[in-house]
Amino acid sequence: MLLSIIIAVIVAIIFFGVGFFTQKVLRDRKILTAEQKADKIITTAKEKSKQIEQQTTERLEHLQREKKREFTEETKALKRHLELWERDLQKKEIELKKSGDFLSQKEKNLMAREKEVQQQREEVRIKRKRYTQLIEESNQKLENISRMTREEAREVFLAQVKEETENKAIQIENEIISEAKKKGTRKAKEIITQAIQRCAAEHTSDTTVSVVSLPSESMKGRIIGREGRNIRAFENTTGIDVIIDDTPETITLSSFDPIKREIARVSMENLVKDGRIHPARIEEIVKKVTTELEERILEIGEDTMFELGISNIHENLVRMVGRLNFRTSYSQNVLQHSREVAYLMSLMAGELDLDIDLATRAGILHDIGKGMTQDYKGKHAEIGAIEARKFGENPIVVNAIAAHHEEVEPTSPIAVLLQAADAISGARPGARRETLEAYIKRLEDLEKIASSFEGVKRVYSMQAGREIRIIVEPQNITDNGTRKLALNVAQRIEQELKYPGEIKVTVIRETRAVTNAK
After folding, report:
1. 396, 358 in Cβ contact below 8 A?
2. What is the pTM of this model?
């Protein structure tokens, strides 16, 4: 029993020793493993720390370089600005120096001028005193010679002085007018020439007839129809006259209404192409063409407004402008003329600091009265102003339209400018044709006006009425009187005649001495 206990104790001791040893070995192994892990973690941490430190160092260096570069660029920019400011200051300093020198010189000139004025005043005072003495002496001599009283002598002397003063005033007036005309004409020519060069347009000529070509002579018979029913239906529907004569493969459409004539022309061409010509077909084609032409008129008006940059305008006014494309005045297409006037108005208004939009609207609308039918009674300027007012145009534009032929008093610079632009467009070379009767009448009126003045001997119209030459009686008119006569004739022409452009008035006074040698 004791042996069993001893053996059990020994076995227990052995197991305890084995267990203790095994546990120690395991503990040492765990400690070693933990130390290795700790060393590995420390090593990894050190490596990461080095990487972070390196990245931080690189980032700081990059930031430092960026800041340095930005600072350098800002410094360079500030340096450039400082250099520019320094140059500006130098320039301003030079300009101020020049201004100071100029002012000093101006002051010296003013002082010298003041001295001259004082001297001239003194001379005038002395001359006036001497003039008074001469008058007294002259009066005394006149009294002694003519035995006239002082009052009678004064009247004779005043009459002489008055005549001399009038002659001198006329001479000075002509010099001032001539100088003002030169300057004004030069500036006006610059503005007008630039405006015309920038907007010059070709003007198409139209007549009261339209010619339609036919494919064959047999087509004339089909147009006439049985017992003339087709041609009568066509004339009744379109309101124009169809002329069929011996001209081969051609018929003529005649009417004073260009829109009706255009409808008839297009309708006839469509009928000829279609080949079916009878009253019902004629009415159908004419109705269709009328509708298409109305659309085309509106389209022309809209294109014109777009081209001129005009907006917010009533459709009826746009349609009236489109109708002008089919109207002519003195062979000048009215729409092209209105466009040209609108361009001239906008360009010249810009030069004169006026409202360009109002000027352009007045220019394109000034002749809309010419596009109205015969149902509207009155002058075209009056009709156009009424229509413009009805459809909400600006009062300045309405007055400009009404006043562009001087039938109404202009109330704004734009109205006066429209008169000039309208005259320029109509008067420039190639714009209009003048009938022989009107041309001869204008020449006769010119010569009649010039001949009505006293002392005129002969009158000649030159350069197609652009110049009039007046020969006067030398014993009736003095040299200074010729200037006065030229001015009076020019004023009468401006008041009584309507003409494009300007008319030059030349007065010639000639003195001849004739004798015979025997």
Report:
1. yes
2. 0.48
